[in-house]
């Protein structure tokens, strides 16, 4: 039997794992995952630039893969594992090597795009060996993220530095 | 930039998804990767009353090798195509084209069926399906039918799928030995939809005569189109640079692209000709290497 429409529009409680912690919160079906993270869970590190998939600011890891959180409904994330930019730094507040590299290499100015770049870089470096990486490959890996400030040179350097420090 | 309210359904089997589609019909939209539908909902260009989310229908995601071609489940992610050994080996055109679809985070979610059902006139996968003479399977209340690529794409964002039909599978046929393929496109930025692009296939026999040719263009009309005029300059002829020049000129002449702020009709036409010439040249080289001429 098909659920009546009135019930199918109602908010529901979602249980999921965010940055290693189990959380539960309510969401209507139309709530975007990006808004759920920011407004329901208070994780405002995930930025929202365009809300149509183009800028990459809202990139997070969903069950280990990088996705746009503005193009996913919160209800779809029920039971999933999510990593946001808040999940990168260590418990003691020390920076993740990728964050450190962006700081060292002037990979950010205003910082609006940075959470998306950090998450895209994180996803990329989980899979790629630093030694065989060309500049071209780095540029392709982060091509889905837009930055209006830096001119990208510092970002590309940061990705390379992060790859090297993470290798050690 | 927030979607309007809708009723949300989350089937876990194909049968359940079909039952929902049959029941809800016009008001409902299938949600696959959401990489086209959710932006449209965010901008309120689409306001479906109900969403049938097929992401938990695992039986719709697979890549299978059959005798005639690759059978690809509708929910197979574009990223899975990109990473598949069998796609690389058996359908090099598909493997080459998939890298032009958006970016890794888009391809992690975006599906093969979604791309075909969405039918953006500048999308890559419809052009590949057309160039290979592929088809899709669609299932509705009255059973499953096979829709050839040439009959699937009807207009911009318009297919011949019925509102209560689910696209379940796409077939990407294998081409005979002696075939070379190539995919090229021009975009404003990396990963954007193409301004113009081309999928080219050439099959040559032992004497170097072209026995099959496909020139499928994207971004150059209301839908992806095969240029019959260009193909007529190739099939039955000895392959050489002149045949390719003639085909490129014919492709250009056969098009009536629409212009927008990113490119005028004249520009798109010109680029279509240039890309056709280059793609056919590459495909020819690959065909020769395969047939050891
Ligand atoms: C920034 C960005 C860049 C992009 N660049 C490109 C690009 O360069 N080239 C390109 O081709 N695409 C591009 N895309 C679009 C992307 O490839 C989408 O994934 C694709 O168009 C739709 O697939 P989807 O699985 O996300 O479908 P959805 O968005 O979920 O659905 C799209 C449409 O198809 C229907 N549908 C989906 N699955 C089925 C089914 N099985 N049966 C019946 N109907 C179905 C839906 O109801 C909806 O109308 C881009 C997207 C973004 C956000
Ligand atoms: S806010 Fe999600 S991609 Fe721009
Ligand atoms: S640092 Fe300002 S947008 Fe990238």
Summary of the model, kept short:
The complex is a heterodimer of chains A (168) and B (293). With 168 residues, chain A is an alpha+beta fold. Chain A contains six helices and five strands.
Structural class of chain B, please? alpha+beta
Number of β-strand runs of chain B:
14
Major β-sheet annotation of chain B: 5 strands, antiparallel
Topology order of chain A in helix (H) and strand (E) letters = HEEHEEEHHHH
The rounded Rg of chain B comes to 19 Å
Number of helices of chain B: 12
Question: In words, what does this structure look like?
Answer:
The complex is a heterodimer of chains A (168) and B (293). Chain A is α+β, with helices and mostly antiparallel strands and 168 residues long. Helix content of chain A is 33%, strand content 15%. Chain A is elongated and about 55 Å long. A five-stranded antiparallel β-sheet of chain B has the order 4-5-10-6-7. Chain B is globular. The site of one FE2/S2 (inorganic) cluster has 12 residues of chain A, from loops.
Question: What key attributes describe this structure?
Answer:
heterodimer; A: 168 residues; alpha+beta; 5-stranded mixed beta sheet; 33% helix; elongated; B: 293 residues; 5-stranded antiparallel beta sheet; 4-stranded antiparallel beta sheet; 12 helices; 14 strands; binds flavin-adenine dinucleotide; binds FE2/S2 (inorganic) cluster
Please write out the topology.
The complex is a heterodimer of chains A (168) and B (293).
Chain A: H1 5-8, E1 12-18, E2 21-27, H2 33-40, E3 59-62, E4 65-68, E5 81-83, H3 97-104, H4 114-127, H5 135-141, H6 153-167
Parallel strand pairs in A: 1-5
Antiparallel strand pairs in A: 1-2, 3-4, 3-5
Helix pairs in contact in A: 3-6
Chain B: E1 7-9, H1 14-24, E2 28-31, H2 37-42, E3 50-53, E4 63-65, E5 69-73, H3 78-83, H4 85-90, H5 92-98, H6 104-109, H7 112-118, H8 124-131, E6 135-140, E7 143-148, H9 149-152, E8 153-155, E9 158-159, E10 166-173, E11 179-186, E12 196-204, E13 210-218, E14 225-226, H10 228-232, H11 241-254, H12 265-291
Parallel strand pairs in B: 1-3, 2-3
Antiparallel strand pairs in B: 4-5, 5-10, 6-7, 6-10, 8-9, 11-12, 12-13, 13-14
Helix pairs in contact in B: 5-8, 11-12
Bound molecules: flavin-adenine dinucleotide and FE2/S2 (inorganic) cluster (FES) (2 copies).
